[in-house]
Design a protein that fits this description.
By secondary structure, the chain is an alpha/beta fold. The protein is 34% helix and 25% strand. Helix 3 packs across helix 4 and helix 8 runs parallel beside helix 9. Bound molecules: coenzyme A.
């Protein structure tokens, strides 16, 4: 049987208009622009409007990706949304997006936190290569600012909202997803999570009083593991793809913290100019970060057609992953 390849048809992204600066945060918690800039590299982030939900951000990003892909909505067989901040606990935000797009595709969400887009890529690749489905719309999107405790300076300075989308399709000739490598370690579940609101700890007045419906994080521990795991995942993805640093035009790490990005670049031994950074503009948008950065790099001409890009992520679970893509 002839091998089915995976072609990337197009990408799109959308961030809400409202900007929250470090100066704004100085008025909300005991912090400073200097601390946030030095410890994270973040200068501002986007905040979703009250009238919008994740499915709206996903819709805007998807429309752009579909338009660039020059396909019609009816061509889409599967919609996958990677998120930890969907419109509702269920049904899947992918189903709400399907309705907004007026599509009849199979639709479901995946939960792999900041690594969600990597996990989604692996699913899309497998669906297409196996011949199960021909065209996949993959979205990474979050409204982290609605699951953030705005009185906790340890976390509220870090997060932002946004969505990115990619359309992938079966191809007989071109192969654009050269490799995807994934990993997870559930022994670290306690380092980064939302304690309440699931079935293990149902929402009660007490959980709300204790703000247990918001993100809790042990920043220092997460930082150390992030650097090691993103480096390893990238090396593995390069190895699977049979590529070396000189083949890669751009590295796009998960945009959580500039110090993590720089530490990973250093460990990989890659030139600083080849490591993409936009964390100063958006903060950490979890599953949306790598796809928004990739779309930005394509749109701005930072990468051109035929270039190889390495994207990598790390997040709650703990989970991690990396992929080598041809643009
Ligand atoms: N403003 C001012 N001071 C702050 C602050 C803020 N927003 N947040 C924390 N601090 C204080 C702490 O309370 C601590 O004070 P103390 O020494 O008196 O206790 C001090 O700054 C240092 O905190 P520490 O946790 O050691 O800082 P850090 O250098 O580890 O940076 C993070 C904190 C969160 C920025 C960093 O650990 C990080 O980015 N971790 C990874 C986060 C991440 O990527 N998460 C998502 C993964 S997808």
């Amino acid at each position: 049987m002839k091998k089915i390849n995976v072609k990337i048809l197009g990408t799109g992204s959308y961030v809400p208009e409202k900007v929250l600066t470090n100066a704004d945060l100085e008025k909300m918690v005991d912090t400073s622009d200097q601390w946030i800039t030095e410890r994270t590299g973040i200068k501002e982030r986007r905040i979703i409007d009250k009238s919008q939900n994740l499915s709206d951000l996903a819709f805007e990003a998807s429309k752009k990706a579909i338009e660039k892909s020059k396909i019609s909505i009816s061509d889409i067989d599967v919609i996958v949304v990677a998120t930890v901040s969907g419109d509702m606990p269920f049904p899947a935000t992918a189903c709400i997006l399907q309705k907004k797009l007026v599509s009849n595709a199979v639709a479901f969400d995946i939960s792999a936190a900041c690594s969600g887009f990597m996990y989604g890529l692996s699913i899309a690749k497998s669906f297409i290569e196996s011949g199960s489905y021909k065209t996949v719309l993959l979205v990474g999107g979050e409204v982290l600012t609605r699951i953030t405790d705005w009185t906790d300076r340890n976390t509220c300075v870090l997060f932002g909202d946004g969505a990115g989308a990619m359309v992938l399709q079966a191809s007989e000739t071109e192969n654009d997803v050269l490799s995807v490598h994934l990993g997870a370690d559930g022994t670290y579940t306690n380092l980064l999570n939302i304690p309440a609101g699931g079935t293990a700890m149902q929402t009660t007045h007490e959980t709300v009083d204790n703000k247990l419906q918001f993100i809790k994080m042990s920043g220092k521990e997460v930082f150390k593991i992030a650097v090691v795991k993103m480096t390893e995942a990238t090396q593995k993805a390069l190895e699977i793809a049979g590529k070396k640093d000189e083949d890669i035009a751009l590295y796009i790490p998960h945009q959580a913290n500039l110090r993590i990005i720089e530490a990973v670049g250093k460990r990989l031994g890659v030139a600083k100019e080849k490591v993409y950074v936009n964390v100063h503009k958006y903060g950490n948008m979890s599953s949306a970060t790598t796809i928004i950065a990739l779309d930005e790099a394509i749109t701005s001409g930072t990468v051109k057609k035929g270039d190889l890009v390495n994207i990598m992520a790390f997040g709650g679970g703990l989970t991690w992953g990396a992929a080598v893509l041809k643009i």
